[in-house]
Automatic annotation (TrEMBL), chain A:
ABC transmembrane type-1 domain segment(s): 87-279
Record's GO cellular component terms: plasma membrane
Family: Belongs to the binding-protein-dependent transport system permease family.
Gene3D superfamilies: MetI-like
GO biological process: transmembrane transport
Stated name of the protein: Multiple sugar transport system permease protein
Keyword Transmembrane: yes
Origin species: Kribbella italica
Keywords tagged on the record: Cell membrane, Membrane, Sugar transport, Transmembrane, Transmembrane helix, Transport
Pfam families hit by this protein: BPD_transp_1
Transmembrane segments: 21-47, 86-110, 122-144, 164-182, 203-224, 257-277
UniProtKB/TrEMBL annotation, chain B:
Membrane topology: Multi-pass membrane protein
Pfam families the UniProt entry points to: BPD_transp_1 (PF00528)
One GO BP annotation of this record: transmembrane transport
InterPro entries for this protein: ABC_transporter_permease, MetI-like, MetI-like_sf
Main location: membrane
Taxonomic lineage from the root: Bacteria, Bacillati, Actinomycetota, Actinomycetes, Propionibacteriales
Compartmental location: Cell membrane
Keywords linked to the UniProt accession: Cell membrane, Membrane, Sugar transport, Transmembrane, Transmembrane helix, Transport
Organism: Kribbella italica
Annotated TM spans: 12-37, 75-96, 108-126, 157-180, 201-220, 268-288
Alphabetical list of PROSITE patterns matching this protein: ABC_TM1 (PS50928)
GO CC annotation: plasma membrane
Protein name (record): Multiple sugar transport system permease protein
Record CDD domains: TM_PBP2 (cd06261)
Domain ABC transmembrane type-1 intervals: 71-286
Length: 293, 298
């Protein structure tokens, strides 16, 4: 395949008289330039996290003669508790959130996509409206509610909403996906004697795996990155998540221990980047389809 | 018989819906009603809410300069960062559209910051990059330019958070890119035959066809920008400083509600935001008829 064919002329290719090879190269140069500017700070942070603390701040470059793991050793056990605890907490909350979202959102989506019931249109309107609702309007009363229920300093305020399908976006994503599956499948299952539960669990869900995967990944990233939720509900250091651990680290150490801070930041980002590399196709298609359909 | 069947199906449907229904009633609609009530009260969690009528709103607009500056900061942030985000996303989507090698690699790398942008780790990094000895100043020093801390001075702190938001343009770009790939090539060829240059073709062919996605991204990015929190909190250490220059609406709401336990005031603030977002959304949908083009639908 040549760089540019006539039918698929690039935006910047004026006329065939301009050399398409040159234009292609310019395009790549521009894109790579933007990427370098964008990604350099992150790459620099990762590199800095392996440098001795004296070198962390006074170098623009990525390389050092004295790579060390000291920042990781110090950072891991710094702060009020060590990061093993924060990571375990984050993993627990994230895992419970993912399962909750998968269960509640898929049940709801099946009903909206496949079943007929009274007030369906109204309820679907409510679902769409909650997607646009700013979270602040429920933030204060939910806090009061969870406070009354004595759920402060437990994971319940962070996890229970996920089990009750509060994140309408994922329901919507799955409704749109299930609608693309042929109805004949349901009819065939019905003739074979499947009820709705079996149609849902044996036919639709296995086929909806891409949508479930997208939901799981987005929930993972949102829960892992979540800062406000843990900040509001988790006051005891032994319950803190990685986000809270990093934030308090910044308070305790100030600017003096940037090496350790960068080391822990790198570890906090690693799962996100890891999952992304493993499943980028799923994530990118998930984003692309939300806009198109 | 038909009736009993749909009746049974309705029952099954509500069983499937039950977690969501419980959530919508207990965690969304109920709390909304309660916060609508709280907006007219003074409530500190310790003693019962006390009805004070419109006092919260009166205070917001006439007796609380910090509230007004949080509104100003937020509107400035939304007004600058959303258009910037849309323009940058569109330009990069155009650069990636059609016949480019390594498309999936580029797409992935541009998208990655969108996933990290909301994390504390990146906010921590941002604080360093724009600090007095940070990466930005080190680069500027190479050109002989000296500047103090960007996050530490009131004139520039907000712009560092605008950059943080702009950095995560990938999600918006991917939606534009998906749309660009559906623009029929014949239309472009026809316009080219008619003598339209690339700029003309963009404005008369591509852009009209992209309006549904511009509408979608404008709506979502604006709502998203109004709710920005983590970046401002971490960069300013929760203060909204320096000199309230990064006092985002959400940050001030957090301070009022959860640091000072003024739950009534925070609820009033939340509802003021709902009204503003509602008006914005309504306005957008009303004007959509004039500028959003849905191909074959009309």
């Amino acid at each position: 395949m040549t760089t540019v064919s006539v039918g698929a002329r690039p935006f910047f290719g004026r006329r065939a008289t301009r050399n398409p090879l040159v234009i292609g190269l310019l395009r790549h140069a521009l894109l790579i330039g933007v990427l370098i500017v964008m990604l350099y700070p992150v790459v620099w942070m990762v590199a800095a996290s392996f440098r001795p603390s004296a070198e962390v701040m006074n170098s623009l470059g990525l390389f050092s003669k004295n790579y060390t793991l000291d920042n990781y050793k110090h950072g891991w056990s710094a702060g009020q508790l060590n990061f093993s605890r924060y990571f375990l907490n984050s993993i627990a909350i994230t895992a419970l959130s993912i399962v909750g979202n998968l269960v509640s959102c898929s049940l709801t989506a099946y009903a909206f996509a496949r079943l007929e019931f009274p007030f369906k249109r109204i309820l679907f309107g409510v679902l769409l409206a909650t997607m646009l609702l700013p979270y602040h309007v429920t933030l204060v009363p939910q806090y009061i509610l969870f406070n009354e229920l004595a759920w402060m300093n437990t994971y319940l305020p962070l996890v229970v909403p996920k089990w009750l399908g509060v994140e309408a976006f994922f329901v919507f994503l799955m409704v749109q996906f299930i609608r693309t599956l042929p109805r004949e499948l349901d009819d065939a299952a019905r003739i074979d004697g499947c009820g709705h539960w079996r149609t849902f669990s044996r036919i639709i869900m296995p086929l909806a795996l891409p949508a479930l995967g997208t939901t799981a990944l987005f929930t993972f990233i949102a829960s892992w990155n979540d800062f406000l939720g843990p900040l509001l509900y988790l006051n005891r250091p032994e319950q803190w998540t990685v986000s809270l651990g990093l934030n308090s680290f910044l308070d305790v150490t100030g600017e003096s221990a940037y090496g350790s801070l960068f080391a822990m930041s790198t570890l906090a980002l690693a799962p996100i980047v890891g999952f992304f590399l493993g499943a980028q196709k799923l994530l990118i298609e998930g984003v692309a389809t939300t806009g198109l359909k | 018989m038909k009736n009993t069947r749909t009746g049974r199906e309705g029952l099954t449907a509500y069983l499937f819906l039950s977690p969501w229904l419980l959530g919508i009633v207990l965690l969304t609609i109920g709390p909304m009603l309660y916060s609508a009530y709280l907006a007219f009260t003074s409530y500190d969690l310790l003693s019962a809410p006390r009805w004070i009528g419109l006092d919260n709103f009166r205070r917001m607009f006439t007796a609380d300069p910090r509230y007004l500056s949080s509104v100003k900061v937020t509107l400035l942030y939304v007004g600058v960062s959303v258009p910037l985000l849309l323009v940058v996303s569109m330009i990069l989507a155009l650069l990636l559209n059609k016949g480019i090698k390594f498309l999936s690699g580029y797409r992935a790398l541009f998208y990655l910051p969108s996933l990290m942008g909301a994390s504390v780790a990146i906010a921590v990094l941002w604080r360093q990059i724009f600090g007095s000895t940070g990466l930005v100043n080190q680069v500027l020093a190479l050109f002989g330019i000296t500047h103090g801390s960007w996050v530490g001075s009131p004139g520039t702190a907000l712009w560092t958070i605008v950059t943080l938001n702009l950095w995560a343009f990938g999600a918006t770009m991917i939606i534009f890119l998906a749309g660009l790939r559906q623009v029929p090539a014949e239309l472009h060829e026809a316009a080219a035959v008619d003598g339209a240059g690339p700029i003309r073709r963009f404005f008369s062919v591509t852009l009209p066809l992209m309006t549904p996605l511009i509408f979608f991204n404008l709506l979502l990015d604006t709502i998203h920008a109004f709710q920005a929190f983590t970046g401002a909190f971490v960069v300013s250490r929760g203060s909204g400083g320096p000199a309230d220059s990064t006092l985002f609406y959400t940050l001030y709401l957090y301070q009022q509600g959860f640091a000072e336990l003024k739950m009534g005031y925070a609820s009033a603030m939340a509802w003021a935001l709902v009204v503003v977002l509602g008006l914005f959304t309504g306005f957008l949908f009303l004007t959509a008829k004039r500028w959003v083009y849905y191909g074959d639908e009309r």
